[in-house]
Automatic annotation (TrEMBL):
Keywords: Cell membrane, Disulfide bond, Ion channel, Ion transport, Leucine-rich repeat, Membrane, Repeat, Signal, Transmembrane, Transmembrane helix, Transport
Highest taxon of the lineage: Eukaryota
Record has Repeat as a keyword: yes
Domain LRRCT: 201-254
Regions crossing the membrane: 263-289
Protein name (database record): Leucine-rich repeat-containing protein 26
GO CC term, one of those recorded: voltage-gated potassium channel complex
Compartment(s) where it occurs, according to its Swiss-Prot or TrEMBL record: Cell membrane
Membrane topology: Single-pass membrane protein
Biased composition (Low complexity): 314-330
Subunit field text: Interacts with KCNMA1.
C-alpha cells in the first residue's frame, strides 16, 4: 500500500499525488514515523512497529485488519481507521496481544468469534464506533481483560451474555450510548469491577435499575458532576443522580424473577409432570402385576388340591366336579375338599 519513501516513487506518480492533496495528507503521518520500522518481518506491512512489540497502524484509512500479524505483536493500534466490521478470528494470529485499540473506526458489526484467541488481552478499546448491539459470547474469550471501553457507540441494550464472565475486568466504560437500563445479570459476571462509566445514557429510573443503583452505592467514587450518571426518565426524576437512590426507594418493587428462577420454573414444570406420569404408570403396572400374580397364585392354589383329589378319585373324568365352567369348578372343589 505504501512505498518506503517519496524519492523511490516514479515522478508521474508523485505528480499525481501532488494533484490530490487529500491523499498525500492521509499518507503523511505514516511516512513521518521515525522510530517505527515499517514492513519489517512480524510487522503488518502498512504499520510502523516498535521493538517493544507495538504495531502502530493508526490513521491509515484501513478498512480491514492488516495481514501479517504475529505472536510478537503485543500492542496493536488500529485507531482512527475505517474498519466497518470484524470477521471471525480477526486477530487469531496475534494471540499474545495485550492491548488492542480500535477507537474511532466505523465498526457496526463484530462477529461473535472476532476476538477468538485473545486470551491474554488486557485492554480493549472499542470506543467511538457505531455498534448498536453485540452478539452473545463476543467477549467470552477475553479471560484476562482488565479494561474495556464501549463508550461513544449506539448501544441500546447490553446483554449479560455479550460480556459473559470477565473475572478480572476492573474498568468498564459505557458512557455516551443509548442505554436506558442494564440487565440485572450483567454486573454479577464482573466480580472485580471497580470503575463503571455510565453518564451520557438515557437511564430510565424504575425498578429495573435497582441492581445498578445498589452497585453504585457500594462503589462510591469521587466523580465530578459531569461524570455522574443521572435519570432521564420518568420526568419527575429527571437529572436525579443514579447513586442517590437509597434501597428504600425500591421498596415498592417486587423482586423480579431472575432468568435462573425462570429457567427453573420452565424446566421443573414439564419435568415434574413427566416424572409424576412415569411414577403413576410404574405404580399402576406394578399393582396390576401384583394383582395378576396373586390371582394366578390363588388359582393354582385352588386348582391343586382338587387335582390331587381327582388323582385319588378312580372315577376321573366321570366325576361331576369336572364338568362346568372353571369358576364353578373353583368354587365347588374347595368345598369338596373340605367335606371329604
Ligand atoms: C502511531 O502513529 C501515529 C501516526 O504515525 C502517531 O501520530 C502516533 O503518535 C503513534 N502512536 C504511538 C503510540 O506511537
Amino acid at each position: 500500500m505504501r512505498s518506503p519513501s517519496f524519492s523511490s516513487w516514479p515522478p508521474p506518480l508523485l505528480l499525481l499525488l501532488l494533484l490530490h492533496p487529500w491523499q498525500v495528507c492521509a499518507q503523511a503521518p505514516s511516512l513521518a514515523t521515525s522510530s517505527g520500522v515499517s514492513g519489517a518481518p512480524d510487522c503488518p506491512e502498512a504499520c510502523a512497529c516498535a521493538p517493544g512489540g507495538q504495531a502502530n497502524c493508526s490513521a491509515l484509512a484501513l478498512s480491514a485488519v492488516p495481514a501479517g500479524l504475529s505472536r510478537r505483536v503485543r500492542a496493536l493500534l488500529l485507531d482512527h481507521n475505517r474498519l466497518g466490521s470484524l470477521p471471525p478470528g480477526a486477530f487469531a494470529d496475534a494471540d499474545a496481544l495485550l492491548r488492542l485499540d480500535l477507537r474511532e473506526n466505523e465498526l457496526r458489526w463484530v462477529h461473535a468469534r472476532a476476538f477468538w484467541g485473545l486470551g491474554a488481552l488486557q485492554r480493549l478499546d472499542l470506543s467511538a464506533n457505531r455498534l448498536e448491539a453485540l452478539a452473545p459470547g463476543t467477549f467470552g474469550p477475553l479471560r484476562a481483560l482488565r479494561t474495556l471501553s464501549l463508550a461513544g457507540n449506539r448501544l441500546a441494550r447490553l446483554e449479560p451474555a455479550a460480556l459473559g464472565a470477565l473475572p478480572l475486568l476492573r474498568a468498564l466504560s459505557l458512557q455516551d450510548n443509548a442505554l436506558s437500563a442494564l440487565s440485572p445479570g450483567l454486573l454479577a459476571g464482573l466480580p472485580a469491577l471497580d470503575a463503571l462509566r455510565l453518564r451520557g445514557n438515557p437511564w430510565t429510573c424504575d425498578c429495573a435499575l435497582r441492581p445498578l443503583c445498589t452497585w453504585l452505592r457500594r462503589h462510591p467514587r469521587p466523580a465530578s458532576e459531569a461524570e455522574t450518571p443521572v435519570c432521564v426518565s420518568p420526568g419527575r426524576l429527571a437529572r436525579s443522580p443514579l447513586a442517590a437512590f437509597p434501597d428504600a426507594a425500591f421498596r415498592h418493587c417486587a423482586r423480579p424473577l431472575s432468568p435462573r428462577d425462570l429457567a427453573m420454573i420452565y424446566l421443573l414444570g414439564p419435568a415434574s409432570f413427566l416424572a409424576s406420569l412415569v411414577a403413576c404408570l410404574a405404580l399402576g403396572s406394578a399393582l396390576t402385576a401384583c394383582r395378576a400374580r396373586r390371582r394366578r397364585r390363588q388359582r393354582t392354589a385352588a386348582h391343586r388340591p382338587p387335582r390331587r383329589s381327582l388323582d385319588l378319585d378312580p372315577g376321573g373324568p366321570a366325576s361331576p366336579a369336572n364338568a362346568g365352567s372353571p369358576a364353578e369348578a373353583g368354587l365347588g372343589r374347595p368345598l369338596e375338599v373340605l367335606f371329604q
